[in-house]
Amino acid sequence: MKKIAVVILPLLIYVSPCLCQERSTINKIEKKFQAFEYDSVIVLANTILSTDQNLLQEKAIDILIMKAVSQYSLSRNSEARKSFVEVLKLNGNFELNPATISPKIIDFFNSIKQEFGDITKPKTEGTKIDSTRFANPPPITIAPTLLKNTIMRSMVLPGWGHLYLDQKTKGWILTSAGMAVAVSMVYFIFDANSKEKDYLNEVAPALIQQKYDSYNTSYKIRNALIISYVAIWLYSQIDILFFSDDEFFQNNITDFTAFRSDLLSSQFNLTFRINF
């Protein structure tokens, strides 16, 4: 009995500080994560994951999730993908909690999970390998939920789609410019209509030219603002579709045809007329 105690006591003395240090580091990571200090989260996560080889699977997954979310939030998507793959290596059936993780990140994780499942799926005996697959690699396809949500937001207000993709600088510039121009445009639409009525109803010869000049100025400003808003709106859509594709183009996610038919089923017409 004494021999057992002699063996166990040093082990307890050695293990206890290690457990306390591990718990302290995990708490520190959680606090940094809650404070949105993502760079610190990544550094601390890398430290504990590389130094603690006896980390419980559940704790390792929690740390990897915080690390991956931090990387995604910093637009380091390729690094976030690697972290999520490490999670799936530990638990291939892992599901993110929608109560604490944003839908965009869940979509991103689920696409990786699907790819990971396809890669690790065992090949059945007698399965023929399609040689054309290597000659003709599968086309890049679109993550429909993310793309549809982004485009719909961008159509409602220029820049909103960029904010949804966490492109904050460009998003706030477009949103601010779009809202400022839209508010001014609405004001001058009503102002031009009001001054047009005043001009048409004026009967005093001395005031007709004055009323016309006032109406003409408001009319030109209104048209310039309408053109400006349309230009901002079109730029926002073109930028989303052709220059932000890293956020929603991914390999082997889904067939673009399905998304296209879904989007076309909810199409709408945008018509406007400007009189010069």
Overview of the structural elements:
The chain has two domains: 22-120, Serine Threonine Protein Phosphatase 5, Tetratricopeptide repeat, CATH 1.25.40; 144-254. It is elongated and about 95 Å long. It has helices spanning 2-34, 38-51, 57-73, 77-90, 103-120, 132-135, 144-156, 160-164, 168-201, 205-243, 256-264, and strands at 140-142, 249-251. By secondary structure, the protein is mainly α. Strands 1-2 form a two-stranded antiparallel ribbon. The chain is 72% helix and 2% strand.
Report a brief summary of the structure:
This protein is mainly alpha-helical. Helices cover 72% and strands 2% of the residues.
Annotation keywords:
single chain; 276 residues; mainly alpha; Serine Threonine Protein Phosphatase 5, Tetratricopeptide repeat; 2 domains; 2 strands; elongated
Number of helices, where a helix is a run of at least 4 consecutive DSSP H or I residues: 11
Which outline best applies?
elongated
Our count of domains comes out at 2
Distance between the termini: 101 Å
Q: Structural class per helix/strand content? A: mainly alpha
Uncertain parts: 1-9, 11-19, 123-127, 137-142, 247-261, 266-272
- How many strands? 2
Radius of gyration: 29 Å
Estimate the strand proportion.
under 5%
Which strand order does the major sheet show?
1-2
- Can you summarize the main beta sheet? 2 strands, antiparallel
Which helices and strands occur, and which strands form pairs?
Layout: H1 2-34, H2 38-51, H3 57-73, H4 77-90, H5 103-120, H6 132-135, E1 140-142, H7 144-156, H8 160-164, H9 168-201, H10 205-243, E2 249-251, H11 256-264
Helix pairs in contact: 1-2, 1-3, 2-3, 3-4, 4-5, 7-10, 9-10
